[in-house]
Amino acid sequence: MLKSMTGFGRAESTRGETSIVVEIKSLNGKQFEVNLKFSPLLRPYEFDIRALMQQTLQRGTLDATINIRQNGATRPVVINTDLAKFYYQSITTLANQLDLPQGDMLNVLMKLPEVVSPATEQMSEEEWKDVEGTLRQALTDLDTHRLDEGQMLEADLMQRIENIDASMQKVRELDPLRKDRIRQRLEGLLAEHVGKENVDGNRLEQELIFYLEKLDISEELSRLENHLRYFKEILKDGDAAKGKKLGFVLQEIGREINTTGSKANDAGIQQWVVLMKDELEKAKEQVLNVL
């Protein structure tokens, strides 16, 4: 089953007066990159958080937010007055520019990030376990979305490969006719410019064989068929992270298609080559989203 790198996960839990909300958004990326925003209480656990996310998600560009809210007065708090003043000046300036009522400014300021924070900067082991559990739930939710998206990616990629395979079969059908046309064209040119009676039949046959071997595309088509088969096998294997492998196989598919087009020397075959290239580009775009 394919997994996409795009998805969204959210989880929320409450214990007593403490609420924990975790939100994670994932986009495609070559490596694992995470923009992490969290309460200062979680700084000692940042490494554990990042390690857990990488272990579960493996690859992608992530935006993650972990909010811890105190809903009651069970824990002493401190007010960051300097930050509150900064918020106040910015909000007041914006309200004046937009000619908006300022209303209950104090209530607004108290809800802004890190204006009010717990007096102690240490989190108990029990509280950390609650955060970790909530984070795991959000990661599971995100992973489910990735699987759902992956099913659509797999169906689309399979269709692209099937389309390339169908075009390749058309090229196989046209190849013998192409060789006959090349032979007839060369014989006609020789008869026109040299004279049919002046042509050495044995020498002509040798030269034709040599020329046709240079234009032969049977090996390219065989390799292309093998690459297409291998691509399908990778789609069906149990490895969760296979986007890079699929991308490498698509490069090989593209190499054989390009070589076939350059050697074909036939308008009919070139049309099918163009169609294969079009399907290949669409497949490459989709593979960028595969884990």
From TrEMBL:
Pfam families reported in the protein's UniProt record: YicC-like_C, YicC-like_N
Cofactors (names): a divalent metal cation
Single GO term (MF): RNA endonuclease activity
Record domain Endoribonuclease YicC-like C-terminal: where: 173-290
Keyword entries, A-Z: Endonuclease, Hydrolase, Nuclease
Record domain Endoribonuclease YicC-like N-terminal: where: 2-154
InterPro entries registered for this protein in UniProt: YicC-like_C, YicC-like_N, YicC/YloC-like
KW Nuclease (keyword) present: yes
Family label: Belongs to the YicC/YloC family.
Record-given protein name: Uncharacterized protein (TIGR00255 family)
Organism the protein comes from: Chitinophaga niastensis
Lineage: Bacteria, Pseudomonadati, Bacteroidota, Chitinophagia, Chitinophagales
